[in-house]
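Continuing the batch. This is chain 6 of the set; chains 1 through 5 are on the previous pages. Same settings as before, nothing changed between runs. Recording input and output for traceability.
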Amino acid sequence: MNAITSLPSLDYLLTEVRKIARIAGDTVMHYHQNMPTHPEFLKYKQDQSPVTEADLKSHQVIMEELQQLTPEILIISEESQEIPYENRALVSTMWIVDPIDGTGEFINGSGEFAIHIGLAHLGKAILGVVHIPVSGRTYFAARRHGAFCDDNGTIRGLKVNSVDLTASFLKIAHSRSHMNEQTMTYIRSFDRPELFAVGSSLKVMGIAEGIYDIYPKLGSGMLEWDTCAPQIILEEAGGSMVDLDRGKPLEYNKEDLVQPDFLAIGQIAKYRDA
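Output for chain 6:
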């Protein structure tokens, strides 16, 4: 496996990646403001999933900036051509990027979309930046460095709630656009939960801030770029994002980039009986 022998410090990378995310965010906002009068911005991929000119421009900006910042580190992006696993398997460290997480929310005019730039090493998320262009907030974290939110120049630390899974009225976030019966059945297993429909990774950031307690994602369909940056932010805030079958943190640079069913949650104080 190829090792990166000259990886800059995580502090330095975090500072630079926050700048890159904001540059991409400014680019995206131009399209967000003009989307209603420019339907030509919207296209469809071969799998019929939507992609906009904003996704592609954000991808271009992030790719160019990361290649200048760390030319030796591989970049996986939702909008890149797929890299065969036999090539990725030789790489220990990589950027994992979602130029716009929540493209559907972007298209429908919601502000609930984000830019993700994550760094994974030996299969684990170690650095992440999640930028919310509409609000201007930037969430960021690196392994053993804590988790923070830059709220338009005011920086605050992030801390999850202590979560008793046997308690009533847990605050459960779920997808605004992709709810399914499998997830709803899981949610109904809790006692009188309070439900919050939220777009993109704002669900996970809300847990990191202590606004929500849990976000279950079953029948996932999510890929590694959807979870890498949010996962390390949530972990550094005291929470976790775990594979529901294995009970272990989500992993990266897998042969199949699709993530399993998972649960994003604050700090678990008490489990339910199996």
